[in-house]
Amino acid sequence: MKINKIYKNLRIMAKTLVLCIDRDNDLGRKTHTHGPVIGIENNIKAAENLALSDPTDSDVNAIFSAVKVAMDMHYEVATITGDKDAGIIADRMLCDQVDFLISEIKPDDVVLVTDGAEDEQIIPIIESRIKISSVKRVIVKQSKELEGAYFTLTNFLDELLKEPANSRLMVGLPGIILLLFAIGILTDQLLSALALMLGITGIYLIIKGFGVEERFFAMISEFLKSLSPERISFLTYLTSVMILFIGLWNGWHAYITVASEELFVNISAFIKASADLVLLAAAFALGGRMIDEYIEKNYLSIRRNLIILALVILIKEIVVSGANFISPEEDAEVINMAISVILYILLFVVVIEFTKQIFANEILADTKLRKKLLKQRVFNTTGKHLGNVSDIWIRGTKLAGLKIGRRKITEDKIVSIGDIIVVKV
Length: 425
Description:
Strand content: 5-15%
Shape: elongated
Strand order of the largest sheet: 2-3-1-4-5
Helix content: 55-70%
CATH topology of the largest domain: Rossmann fold
CATH class of the largest domain: Alpha Beta
Mean pLDDT: 81
Structural class: alpha/beta
Number of domains: 4
Radius of gyration: 34 Å
Number of strands: 12
CATH architecture of the largest domain: 3-Layer(aba) Sandwich
């Protein structure tokens, strides 16, 4: 009896506020009631309105639970609301409301009532302002073990599938296999479909095994993006495809015209008839790409494409020299062919060194930024770790964006760069 009496006296002396937190502002978005909502009657009305708007919202139970605690213990009650993004903006709004409640109600401590871990992320911020005497998490009655297993599995799958590499392996590849299997059944070509499945799976595993998966899919993604009709490269790609088709047709015509019993002689005829047009097709495709890169000030990409073009010319010269050597119609001299190949190798080296001098400032800026940013940790504005920087790209000499795996973050979404990188995503 004596202990109960002392407890009652302490409860009267101390002024406690029951604080319900709605960090993602479900109450405001669904009922247009914004925090702070003060008093038992106001909170009951807010909870009823929210229940009528969305009976499944867990914040309904949290507000009613806060009201019940306040009524049982004869405390004051208030509900504070944040922002739909539940990030920095939400936390600032919650802080302003807490400061207002402290100045108006002047509580000695608070009892927090939440509906989950997300709302509880603000606990350290509230603790810096006022003592927290208790935290109550409201969960609708059900099997806690089942609920825990469900959320653990859901979160695991969500996190797993956010990584593009995992998503391709667990969803993309099985999807392709099932599609090919269905086509094989419909066309009565199941054996061919199975062979194609094994081939695609084998190619994917080779790409993944050699660690070039991200680069490979990034190249495909960049190519598909460049197919916009608004880009110069779209027209040059169409032109290069037509030239390539004509070149391959010329090669095939030469192949069947020679009709030699020796396979290498036929291949030689094919190469000599098609090589120049194949080179021209590559030049058109790369030329259009370089024009787009120049417009976008991606000067390092221009350098890369120039080097690729020089490499294509070198390969063409080597292959044609070999074809001339094999061809019975040509009186090829090994010395002349060797000199020609050496000259083209020197040309290739000159292109590398010449472009290095032309784009010296861009190369220096790229090197410094890579040294500074690669492998740095990246967080969003809510404090969630998104991964580490895997690549960057520059426009001129300035940072244009960075990559986290295959995910691109443009410069306008980068909030700050320091010991960690904060981005708006």
